[in-house]
């Protein structure tokens, strides 16, 4: 993508990083700003056209970036393994530093909405809990709050597919270092120590508006994830999409977009009032 830029940041856990990002409709300076956080094997390019389509339909600005280890951002070192708390570090260290680096400070909080998918959804939940003064609200698509047998089984199958098919070549369209992206994600999710990972206690403190959406046919998680959000974040709006798998923006873009636009619009109206 010709409009991709790079932000240089410094973090305690990862040291200096270069993160690729791109703006959508940047000229809409007073519009809600949607910050897109990709899935476990995602990147700026992996989102394809959906962020642009959503921002055009809702009249939003957008900011899409690749976490370190993915896309064209700083890759994971060959001998580095993501720790069990890797999503906490992304939410509490990398994302705040990235937003500061691209000029999205706390003074814009009333216009910032996180839109996170899968691992990106989990990171969005953690950021929402840790930095309520830096966002207006969050939209999470198929987030993980805890590790389920279904998740581990599906990720193990993906490992086999990666090792026996042309999946590495396909992922190579979206990542400069495919090995960094795949094994960083796959190794930690299949690590027995990761079975104890759990965000339920953290999300209970979320005070800002939250929209949680999951497909009923999600191959990486059950509706127990949505039910947990409903139980621990009572003000959250939970939507379960029929005939939809793990990626609502690919499987059900029309109802997903309508739901997000209506939710953000309703809360913008309340703020204006």
UniProtKB/TrEMBL annotation:
Give the Gene3D superfamilies listed for this entry: alpha/beta hydrolase (3.40.50.1820)
Keywords, A to Z? Hydrolase
User: Could you say which residues form the signal peptide?
Assistant: none
Q: Which GO terms describe its cellular component?
A: membrane
Q: Name one GO molecular function term.
A: hydrolase activity
Q: What is the lineage of its organism?
A: Bacteria, Pseudomonadati, Pseudomonadota, Betaproteobacteria, Burkholderiales
Boundaries of every AB hydrolase-1 domain copy:
34-255
Task: List the InterPro entries hit by this protein, alphabetically.
Answer: AB_hydrolase_1, AB_hydrolase_fold, AB_hydrolase_sf
Q: What is the protein name stated in its UniProt record?
A: Alpha/beta hydrolase
Query: Which superkingdom, per the lineage?
Result: Bacteria
